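User: Before I run my own analysis I want an independent prediction to cross-check against. Here's the chain; please return only the structure tokens and, at the end, one sentence I can use as a sanity check.
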Amino acid sequence: MRDGSPMPVLSIIACKMLEDELVYVLSKDQNAVRLIIVENRQCFMFVRKLKSRNCQVRLFPPDRISFFIKQMHSPVSMKIPNFLLKVPFFGEIHENMKEKNRVKAKTRETITVVVNILKLGLHADCDLLKSEIYRNMKEMADFSDGILIFYGNCGRSLRSLEANFKDFNCPLYFLEDEKGDIVDDCISVALGGNDAYAEVMQSGNGTGMFYLTPMWASGWKEMKNESGGTSDVDESFLKNPLYKKVVKISNEISRGDEFDKNVLNFARTFDMSIVEKKGSMEIARKSYLNARNNICKKGSNSP
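Assistant: Structure tokens:
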């Protein structure tokens, strides 16, 4: 955990499949946010979506973010020597500088959010997923007041993260449902929680169903390649007669012709019928607000 500073820093380690949910909660944040994105090959579509919703972002390579945040929080020094302040001209400049600093202090962002989007396919190997999340947590703890793990509990990959991370003195936050349980996976996030997910599965009455969010619909082929052909994206597995339906989960970010086309192509490829479900942003929204409000509260209580 970093040393105290005027502005708290929330870091978010996110699954690329959940970028729509993350764009939504960041764009809906009514408080002023300084948004920093870790520059990598996974981030560019995410950045485009943020900009399309009028979010201002800064991109930095991972090894430059800590330095930037420290510089960003350093106070601007007044470089006019004291003896010159007696001269009316320099005294006036000095007063103008102080006034600008006062205005800046009133209008500055209330929180810095650093987002690190990890690559697709990590969930295919639970140990690899956990080690990648943990490695990034260690790198980001130095400049963070808290870290939100924007992942579902894929194969129990998040189990023991808090215990392993306790020596870093940087609180962790997770995507949790109304019962306080970490959601099962990205589909559970998209449907509004573990109970909602279970309800949809039960509605199939034993029929095999595949779930497509807008991100899944546009990225399932890439996921197949990244994950090495695991069962959830294995074409021979999906052509099993037991799989008869594709559940189309809409959300408030990616709707329209492209999503419709992607789902239709998937359904035709695997000879499935389409069932439509309205998605929810509540898990993402509440989990984000819980993390940001907690670190802001801790920051306001600091001496």
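Sanity check: The first helix runs from residue 19 to 28.
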